[in-house]
Amino acid sequence: MLMNLSDATDLLRGAGLRVTEPRRAVIEALRGLPHASADAIHAKVAQTLPDVSLQTVYNVLRDLTGCGLTRSIEPGDHPARYELRVGDNHHHLVCTRCGAITDVDCVIGHAPCLTPNDDHGFVLSEAEVTFWGLCTSCQSEVATASDPVPVTT
Amino acid sequence: MLMNLSDATDLLRGAGLRVTEPRRAVIEALRGLPHASADAIHAKVAQTLPDVSLQTVYNVLRDLTGCGLTRSIEPGDHPARYELRVGDNHHHLVCTRCGAITDVDCVIGHAPCLTPNDDHGFVLSEAEVTFWGLCTSCQSEVATASDPVPVTT
DNA sequence: GCCTTTTTTTGAATGACTCAAATGAAAGTT
DNA sequence: AACTTTCATTTGAGTCATTCAAAAAAAGGC
Fold first, then answer.
1. Which in B2, B9, B93, B101 has the greatest CB count within 10 A?
2. Is the model's pTM score more than 0.85?
3. How confident is the model at residue B143 (pLDDT cuts 50, 70, 90)?
4. A120 at the B interface (CB within 8 A)?
Protein backbone atom coordinates (compact mmCIF):
# COMPACT_ATOMS: atom_id res chain seq x y z
CA MET A 1 0.00 0.00 0.00
CA LEU A 2 1.57 3.23 -1.10
CA MET A 3 1.04 6.21 1.10
CA ASN A 4 0.28 9.34 -0.81
CA LEU A 5 2.59 11.74 0.92
CA SER A 6 1.09 14.65 -0.90
CA ASP A 7 -2.15 13.99 0.91
CA ALA A 8 -2.77 16.46 3.69
CA THR A 9 -3.52 13.68 6.14
CA ASP A 10 -0.20 12.02 5.54
CA LEU A 11 1.67 15.29 5.72
CA LEU A 12 0.18 15.93 9.13
CA ARG A 13 0.81 12.37 10.36
CA GLY A 14 4.35 12.52 9.09
CA ALA A 15 4.96 15.69 11.03
CA GLY A 16 3.51 14.20 14.20
CA LEU A 17 0.52 16.50 14.23
CA ARG A 18 -3.04 15.40 14.90
CA VAL A 19 -5.18 15.17 11.83
CA THR A 20 -8.11 17.56 12.03
CA GLU A 21 -10.49 18.95 9.46
CA PRO A 22 -9.28 22.55 9.86
CA ARG A 23 -5.66 21.51 9.38
CA ARG A 24 -6.40 19.47 6.29
CA ALA A 25 -8.50 22.29 4.91
CA VAL A 26 -5.74 24.87 5.45
CA ILE A 27 -3.25 22.68 3.61
CA GLU A 28 -5.69 22.16 0.76
CA ALA A 29 -6.40 25.88 0.61
CA LEU A 30 -2.68 26.57 0.27
CA ARG A 31 -2.46 24.22 -2.69
CA GLY A 32 -4.85 26.51 -4.56
CA LEU A 33 -3.53 29.77 -3.14
CA PRO A 34 0.24 29.43 -2.98
CA HIS A 35 0.94 32.74 -1.21
CA ALA A 36 -2.20 33.40 0.78
CA SER A 37 -2.68 35.53 3.86
CA ALA A 38 -4.38 34.11 6.95
CA ASP A 39 -7.50 35.99 5.91
CA ALA A 40 -7.51 34.59 2.39
CA ILE A 41 -6.95 31.08 3.70
CA HIS A 42 -9.79 31.56 6.13
CA ALA A 43 -12.11 32.64 3.33
CA LYS A 44 -11.13 29.65 1.22
CA VAL A 45 -11.49 27.19 4.11
CA ALA A 46 -14.90 28.65 4.90
CA GLN A 47 -16.18 27.45 1.54
CA THR A 48 -16.12 23.89 2.80
CA LEU A 49 -15.95 24.35 6.58
CA PRO A 50 -17.89 27.52 7.34
CA ASP A 51 -17.50 27.22 11.11
CA VAL A 52 -13.72 27.32 11.22
CA SER A 53 -12.68 30.55 12.90
CA LEU A 54 -9.94 32.90 11.82
CA GLN A 55 -8.25 32.24 15.14
CA THR A 56 -8.10 28.56 14.26
CA VAL A 57 -6.49 29.40 10.95
CA TYR A 58 -3.85 31.37 12.84
CA ASN A 59 -3.35 28.45 15.23
CA VAL A 60 -3.04 25.97 12.38
CA LEU A 61 -0.59 28.16 10.50
CA ARG A 62 1.49 28.57 13.62
CA ASP A 63 1.59 24.80 14.10
CA LEU A 64 2.27 23.98 10.46
CA THR A 65 5.02 26.55 10.29
CA GLY A 66 6.43 25.38 13.62
CA CYS A 67 6.99 21.87 12.30
CA GLY A 68 8.16 22.93 8.87
CA LEU A 69 5.15 22.05 6.74
CA THR A 70 4.62 25.66 5.76
CA ARG A 71 6.71 28.78 5.70
CA SER A 72 5.65 32.33 6.34
CA ILE A 73 6.67 35.28 4.24
CA GLU A 74 6.48 38.72 5.77
CA PRO A 75 6.98 41.31 3.10
CA GLY A 76 7.44 44.86 4.33
CA ASP A 77 4.22 46.18 5.69
CA HIS A 78 1.97 43.64 4.01
CA PRO A 79 0.25 41.03 6.17
CA ALA A 80 2.07 37.69 6.39
CA ARG A 81 1.64 35.18 3.60
CA TYR A 82 2.06 31.44 3.85
CA GLU A 83 3.35 28.87 1.41
CA LEU A 84 3.62 25.10 1.24
CA ARG A 85 6.80 25.17 -0.80
CA VAL A 86 9.48 24.56 1.81
CA GLY A 87 12.91 23.03 1.79
CA ASP A 88 14.11 24.39 -1.49
CA ASN A 89 15.77 27.75 -1.27
CA HIS A 90 13.65 30.02 -3.36
CA HIS A 91 12.93 33.73 -3.14
CA HIS A 92 10.11 36.14 -3.82
CA LEU A 93 9.08 38.84 -6.17
CA VAL A 94 6.69 41.22 -4.42
CA CYS A 95 4.61 43.91 -6.06
CA THR A 96 5.15 47.23 -4.31
CA ARG A 97 1.65 48.32 -5.29
CA CYS A 98 -0.71 45.37 -4.72
CA GLY A 99 1.46 43.00 -2.71
CA ALA A 100 1.16 40.10 -5.15
CA ILE A 101 3.87 37.50 -4.62
CA THR A 102 5.57 35.24 -7.13
CA ASP A 103 8.21 32.63 -6.50
CA VAL A 104 11.60 33.01 -8.09
CA ASP A 105 14.09 30.20 -8.06
CA CYS A 106 17.32 30.87 -6.30
CA VAL A 107 20.07 31.65 -8.76
CA ILE A 108 22.75 30.60 -6.38
CA GLY A 109 21.82 27.42 -4.53
CA HIS A 110 20.76 26.22 -1.12
CA ALA A 111 20.48 28.31 2.03
CA PRO A 112 22.19 30.56 2.94
CA CYS A 113 22.60 31.13 -0.76
CA LEU A 114 24.58 34.30 -0.19
CA THR A 115 27.02 35.24 2.53
CA PRO A 116 28.12 38.71 3.50
CA ASN A 117 31.75 39.78 3.37
CA ASP A 118 31.65 40.47 7.09
CA ASP A 119 29.19 38.50 9.21
CA HIS A 120 29.87 40.65 12.30
CA GLY A 121 30.03 37.50 14.42
CA PHE A 122 26.50 36.42 13.59
CA VAL A 123 25.78 32.74 13.13
CA LEU A 124 23.96 32.90 9.82
CA SER A 125 20.96 30.76 9.10
CA GLU A 126 19.41 32.21 6.01
CA ALA A 127 19.72 34.81 3.31
CA GLU A 128 16.33 36.10 2.32
CA VAL A 129 16.12 37.84 -1.03
CA THR A 130 13.07 39.92 -1.87
CA PHE A 131 12.73 41.48 -5.27
CA TRP A 132 10.48 44.52 -5.26
CA GLY A 133 8.78 45.74 -8.39
CA LEU A 134 5.54 46.46 -10.19
CA CYS A 135 3.56 43.45 -11.35
CA THR A 136 2.12 43.39 -14.88
CA SER A 137 -1.44 44.28 -13.92
CA CYS A 138 -0.32 47.15 -11.70
CA GLN A 139 1.83 48.42 -14.56
CA SER A 140 -1.17 48.74 -16.84
CA GLU A 141 -3.38 50.17 -14.09
CA VAL A 142 -0.81 52.83 -13.32
CA ALA A 143 -0.44 53.61 -17.02
CA THR A 144 -4.16 54.05 -17.70
CA ALA A 145 -4.80 55.86 -14.44
CA SER A 146 -2.40 58.79 -14.86
CA ASP A 147 -0.73 59.28 -18.22
CA PRO A 148 -2.31 57.75 -21.37
CA VAL A 149 1.11 56.84 -22.78
CA PRO A 150 3.68 59.63 -23.34
CA VAL A 151 3.70 60.74 -26.99
CA THR A 152 7.42 61.18 -27.52
CA THR A 153 8.80 60.49 -31.07
CA MET B 1 30.89 80.33 3.42
CA LEU B 2 30.77 76.57 3.34
CA MET B 3 27.49 74.95 4.11
CA ASN B 4 27.85 71.93 6.30
CA LEU B 5 25.60 69.51 4.45
CA SER B 6 25.86 67.00 7.24
CA ASP B 7 24.01 69.44 9.46
CA ALA B 8 20.42 68.44 9.99
CA THR B 9 19.20 71.92 9.11
CA ASP B 10 20.90 71.84 5.74
CA LEU B 11 19.71 68.34 5.03
CA LEU B 12 16.13 69.47 5.61
CA ARG B 13 16.55 72.66 3.57
CA GLY B 14 18.13 70.73 0.76
CA ALA B 15 15.19 68.38 0.66
CA GLY B 16 12.72 71.26 0.61
CA LEU B 17 11.36 70.48 4.06
CA ARG B 18 10.68 73.06 6.73
CA VAL B 19 13.25 73.15 9.47
CA THR B 20 11.68 72.33 12.81
CA GLU B 21 13.07 71.24 16.13
CA PRO B 22 11.44 67.78 16.05
CA ARG B 23 12.81 67.09 12.59
CA ARG B 24 16.32 68.13 13.51
CA ALA B 25 16.11 66.08 16.67
CA VAL B 26 15.00 62.94 14.82
CA ILE B 27 17.90 63.25 12.41
CA GLU B 28 20.32 63.75 15.28
CA ALA B 29 18.84 60.77 17.11
CA LEU B 30 19.40 58.59 14.06
CA ARG B 31 23.05 59.57 13.98
CA GLY B 32 23.50 57.96 17.38
CA LEU B 33 21.08 55.07 16.79
CA PRO B 34 21.62 53.94 13.23
CA HIS B 35 18.78 51.38 13.11
CA ALA B 36 16.28 52.68 15.61
CA SER B 37 12.55 52.04 15.83
CA ALA B 38 10.09 54.93 16.06
CA ASP B 39 9.82 54.21 19.76
CA ALA B 40 13.56 54.28 20.32
CA ILE B 41 13.87 57.51 18.34
CA HIS B 42 11.08 59.01 20.38
CA ALA B 43 12.84 58.09 23.62
CA LYS B 44 16.10 59.60 22.39
CA VAL B 45 14.43 62.79 21.15
CA ALA B 46 12.62 63.13 24.46
CA GLN B 47 15.96 63.59 26.21
CA THR B 48 16.28 67.04 24.67
CA LEU B 49 12.70 67.79 23.58
CA PRO B 50 10.45 66.10 26.13
CA ASP B 51 7.24 67.42 24.59
CA VAL B 52 7.64 65.85 21.17
CA SER B 53 4.96 63.21 20.76
CA LEU B 54 5.38 59.75 19.30
CA GLN B 55 2.90 60.75 16.62
CA THR B 56 5.23 63.54 15.59
CA VAL B 57 8.10 61.11 15.35
CA TYR B 58 5.96 58.98 13.03
CA ASN B 59 5.08 62.06 10.98
CA VAL B 60 8.68 63.14 10.75
CA LEU B 61 9.86 59.69 9.74
CA ARG B 62 7.16 59.53 7.08
CA ASP B 63 8.26 62.88 5.70
CA LEU B 64 11.99 62.15 5.85
CA THR B 65 11.50 58.77 4.20
CA GLY B 66 9.18 60.29 1.64
CA CYS B 67 11.85 62.66 0.40
CA GLY B 68 14.68 60.18 0.65
CA LEU B 69 16.53 61.46 3.69
CA THR B 70 15.88 58.25 5.58
CA ARG B 71 14.97 54.72 4.69
CA SER B 72 12.81 52.27 6.57
CA ILE B 73 13.67 48.66 7.16
CA GLU B 74 10.87 46.26 7.97
CA PRO B 75 12.33 42.98 9.05
CA GLY B 76 9.86 40.13 9.42
CA ASP B 77 7.62 40.72 12.38
CA HIS B 78 9.84 43.26 14.09
CA PRO B 79 8.70 46.88 14.20
CA ALA B 80 10.09 49.10 11.46
CA ARG B 81 13.56 50.55 11.85
CA TYR B 82 14.91 53.68 10.25
CA GLU B 83 18.34 54.58 8.97
CA LEU B 84 20.05 57.66 7.62
CA ARG B 85 22.31 55.70 5.33
CA VAL B 86 20.59 55.99 1.97
CA GLY B 87 21.69 55.94 -1.62
CA ASP B 88 24.29 53.23 -1.37
CA ASN B 89 22.95 49.76 -1.88
CA HIS B 90 23.64 47.97 1.35
CA HIS B 91 21.86 45.15 3.10
CA HIS B 92 21.11 43.99 6.62
CA LEU B 93 22.00 41.33 9.07
CA VAL B 94 19.12 40.79 11.49
CA CYS B 95 19.22 38.79 14.69
CA THR B 96 16.38 36.27 14.75
CA ARG B 97 16.32 36.43 18.52
CA CYS B 98 16.64 40.07 19.57
CA GLY B 99 16.10 41.89 16.26
CA ALA B 100 19.42 43.73 16.34
CA ILE B 101 20.38 45.05 12.93
CA THR B 102 23.80 45.50 11.38
CA ASP B 103 24.66 46.90 7.98
CA VAL B 104 26.45 44.72 5.49
CA ASP B 105 27.90 46.16 2.34
CA CYS B 106 26.49 44.86 -0.88
CA VAL B 107 28.81 42.32 -2.44
CA ILE B 108 27.42 42.92 -5.88
CA GLY B 109 26.92 46.62 -6.53
CA HIS B 110 24.17 49.15 -6.91
CA ALA B 111 20.41 48.47 -6.93
CA PRO B 112 18.97 46.13 -8.02
CA CYS B 113 22.15 44.28 -7.17
CA LEU B 114 20.64 40.95 -8.11
CA THR B 115 18.16 40.02 -10.79
CA PRO B 116 16.05 36.89 -10.97
CA ASN B 117 16.26 34.46 -13.87
CA ASP B 118 12.62 35.07 -14.60
CA ASP B 119 11.12 38.42 -13.61
CA HIS B 120 7.55 37.31 -14.42
CA GLY B 121 6.92 40.60 -16.17
CA PHE B 122 7.61 42.69 -13.09
CA VAL B 123 9.39 46.02 -13.46
CA LEU B 124 12.06 45.55 -10.84
CA SER B 125 13.13 48.38 -8.61
CA GLU B 126 15.13 46.76 -5.85
CA ALA B 127 16.57 43.53 -4.55
CA GLU B 128 16.45 43.46 -0.78
CA VAL B 129 18.76 41.01 0.91
CA THR B 130 18.25 40.17 4.56
CA PHE B 131 20.65 37.89 6.33
CA TRP B 132 19.09 36.18 9.32
CA GLY B 133 21.18 34.82 12.15
CA LEU B 134 22.06 34.92 15.83
CA CYS B 135 24.03 37.94 17.00
CA THR B 136 27.01 37.44 19.26
CA SER B 137 25.29 38.40 22.51
CA CYS B 138 22.30 36.16 21.76
CA GLN B 139 24.69 33.32 21.03
CA SER B 140 26.18 33.52 24.50
CA GLU B 141 22.81 34.04 26.16
CA VAL B 142 21.41 30.97 24.46
CA ALA B 143 24.50 28.99 25.44
CA THR B 144 24.39 29.91 29.14
CA ALA B 145 20.63 29.60 29.36
CA SER B 146 20.24 25.98 28.22
CA ASP B 147 23.43 23.96 27.89
CA PRO B 148 26.58 25.10 29.75
CA VAL B 149 28.81 24.17 26.80
CA PRO B 150 28.83 20.57 25.58
CA VAL B 151 31.88 18.74 26.96
CA THR B 152 32.79 16.76 23.89
CA THR B 153 36.55 16.51 23.44
C1' DG C 1 -15.83 3.25 24.40
C1' DC C 2 -13.15 5.85 27.95
C1' DC C 3 -9.55 9.15 29.28
C1' DT C 4 -5.91 12.24 28.58
C1' DT C 5 -3.99 15.44 25.64
C1' DT C 6 -4.38 18.54 22.12
C1' DT C 7 -7.56 21.64 19.25
C1' DT C 8 -11.00 24.68 18.50
C1' DT C 9 -13.99 28.32 19.86
C1' DT C 10 -15.19 32.67 21.78
C1' DG C 11 -14.15 36.99 23.22
C1' DA C 12 -11.00 40.15 24.72
C1' DA C 13 -6.31 42.32 24.42
C1' DT C 14 -2.07 43.96 22.32
C1' DG C 15 1.20 46.61 19.57
C1' DA C 16 2.46 49.23 15.78
C1' DC C 17 0.81 52.41 13.26
C1' DT C 18 -2.69 55.76 10.97
C1' DC C 19 -6.51 59.25 10.72
C1' DA C 20 -8.56 63.66 11.71
C1' DA C 21 -9.61 68.03 13.85
C1' DA C 22 -7.71 71.83 16.26
C1' DT C 23 -3.76 74.47 17.63
C1' DG C 24 0.72 76.28 16.77
C1' DA C 25 4.90 77.45 14.30
C1' DA C 26 7.77 78.52 9.55
C1' DA C 27 8.78 81.32 6.08
C1' DG C 28 7.27 84.12 2.02
C1' DT C 29 4.96 88.90 1.25
C1' DT C 30 4.28 93.69 1.96
C1' DA D 1 8.45 93.75 11.66
C1' DA D 2 3.63 92.44 11.19
C1' DC D 3 0.59 89.78 8.22
C1' DT D 4 -0.81 85.72 5.99
C1' DT D 5 -0.65 81.39 4.13
C1' DT D 6 1.01 77.08 4.38
C1' DC D 7 2.66 73.38 6.72
C1' DA D 8 3.78 70.90 11.37
C1' DT D 9 2.51 69.31 15.80
C1' DT D 10 -0.64 67.79 19.31
C1' DT D 11 -4.32 65.16 21.11
C1' DG D 12 -7.27 61.56 21.07
C1' DA D 13 -9.48 58.11 18.85
C1' DG D 14 -9.39 54.30 15.37
C1' DT D 15 -7.56 50.39 12.55
C1' DC D 16 -5.51 46.12 11.38
C1' DA D 17 -3.01 41.93 11.92
C1' DT D 18 -2.07 39.18 15.29
C1' DT D 19 -1.93 37.04 20.03
C1' DC D 20 -3.69 35.64 24.73
C1' DA D 21 -6.72 32.96 27.74
C1' DA D 22 -10.47 30.23 29.45
C1' DA D 23 -13.91 26.95 28.37
C1' DA D 24 -15.84 23.44 25.31
C1' DA D 25 -14.98 19.88 21.90
C1' DA D 26 -12.52 16.51 19.33
C1' DA D 27 -8.35 13.09 18.45
C1' DG D 28 -6.17 9.01 19.21
C1' DG D 29 -3.92 5.68 22.55
C1' DC D 30 -5.56 2.27 25.86
1. B93
2. yes
3. confident
4. yes
